[in-house]
Amino acid sequence: MSSGGVLDLAVVVTTLTLFSVAWPTLHLTHEVPAPLQPIVAGCAALPFALIRVNPDLGWLISAGAALTIPWFFDVHADYPLPWQVVHIIVLLVLLAAVVLRCPPVHAGLAWLGTVLLFIGYAPGRDGFGWAFGLTALALFCVLIRWLVLSRRQLARQEELSELERTRRTVLEERARIARDLHDVVAHHMSLVVVQAQTAPYRLSDVSPEARAEFDSIGEVARQALNEIRGMLGVLRSDGQSAELAPQPGVGQLSALFDSSRRAGVSLTPVVSGEQDGVTEAVGLAAYRIVQESLANAARHAPGAAVEARVDLGVAESELVVVTVVNGPVANGPVVNAPGAMGSGGNGIAGMRERAQSVGGTLEAHPLAGGGFAVSARLPRTGFAVGSA
Questions:
Q1: Would you say 174 and 242 are in contact if contact means Cβ atoms under 8 Å apart?
Q2: What is the secondary structure of 325-343 as a DSSP string?
Q3: How many Å apart are CA 365 and CA 372, to the nearest integer?
Q4: Pairing of strands 319-326, 361-366
Q5: E strands of the chain, at which residues?
Q6: % of residues, the chain, pLDDT over 70
């Protein structure tokens, strides 16, 4: 049983115990007809049952009973109090519960009402003594409530501080990774760009073809360096400004095709359909899939003819279809076995994750007569189709 269930059971048992005491002893304190005794005893003891669920209502019922019982039923001459002891205990406990748990306005009204009851009904100066005791009880409960709230606020603040420390640790680690990547990758990529640009001036007898090749290497390296800087800008959290260049999309496919041709890929690109309506996420996924497919073709099938088709569709309900097919390598082996699909890297897995991230699918497989094909189907607006 949970702690709440145990407390509820304790409240029920206590309420029944108080009622079992109030009813048999009522005739000793008040002149109440026998048929009405269980009702009057219930008014004295049963409001205790509301101490957890609604102490406000419990106090109101108990105080109302304390206000009306002396009006209708006389007290025995030898009994010094206006109410049963059980009734007084229940009223005081409910007052403490209201002060501890209810809004301050309700607590103040409960204290004032209880004080006025005792001043009005307690004999002689006893009412003022009760008022002093009730005030001390209320102040004690206020101190307990303040202590509990302070501890809760302290625990909440410590939790927030721990979350902030964790967040700062993550940001600092991201900044460290960004700095390391910048020091290693960006530095070497910059050297590649510089070497490619200065090679025609440092080397003698550079043919026009070699000069064009160096220019192509420099252009590709600069594009890669710009993309690396963009990713590093996302990772950085050390107050340094990140570059705000947009992520590539279908609008940059022409530049990608030109770069691949300058790198020596025998490429035939075909782009059809309407670019409007293709979301940035889908455009980025299509661009990366084409980029990775062309890189794989250049790496694993140098000299082979490559055809890249990108159909952007004509309506929001249609798909973006990306197909990159490379033929067999001249005088090379025929690639037709599943084991020849990759070289141990994760390029195909990365492309498949790109497609799935926008709700699309990707297939990559060798061709029967040699060569390789990559085909992706992406919803134009993202997550419009399943991945089956």
A1: no
A2: EE-PPTTS----SGGGS-S
A3: 6
A4: unpaired
A5: 266-272, 305-311, 319-326, 361-366, 372-379
A6: 86
Crossing angle, helix 126-181 and helix 208-235, to 10 degrees?
A: 170
Looking at this protein, which amino acid is placed at residue 45? A
Counting residues of the chain whose pLDDT is more than 90, the rounded percentage is 35
Q: Which helix (H) or strand (E) holds 270?
A: strand 266-272
Per-residue buried b or exposed e for 271-306, using 16+ beta carbons within 10 Å of the residue's own CB: eebeeebbbebbbbbbbbbbbbbbebbbebbeebbb
**For residue 37, what are its two tokens?**
């005794």
Residue 213 neighbours by CB distance under 10 Å: 18
> For the whole prediction, is pTM greater than 0.85?
no
Q: Which two tokens stand for residue 145?
A: 């409530």
Q: Classify residue 270 by burial, with Cβ atoms within 10 Å: 0-12, 13-18, 19+.
A: exposed
Residue 30, beta-bridge partner list: 75
- Dihedral pair phi/psi, residue 265, rounded to 5°: -80, 130
- 306, 279 in Cβ contact below 8 A? no
Amino acid identity of residue 42, one-letter, is G
Coil, helix or strand for 268?
A: strand
Dihedral sign for Cα 248, 309, 297, 199, please: negative
Helix 126-181 / helix 104-121 crossing angle, nearest 10 deg: 170
Residue 326 has phi, psi (to 5 degrees) of -115, 140
Are the CB atoms for 293 and 351 separated by under 8 Å?
yes
Contacts of 64 (CB under 8 A, 6+ apart): none
At 240-270, the pLDDT tens digits run 444 445 678 888 899 889 888 877 788 999 9
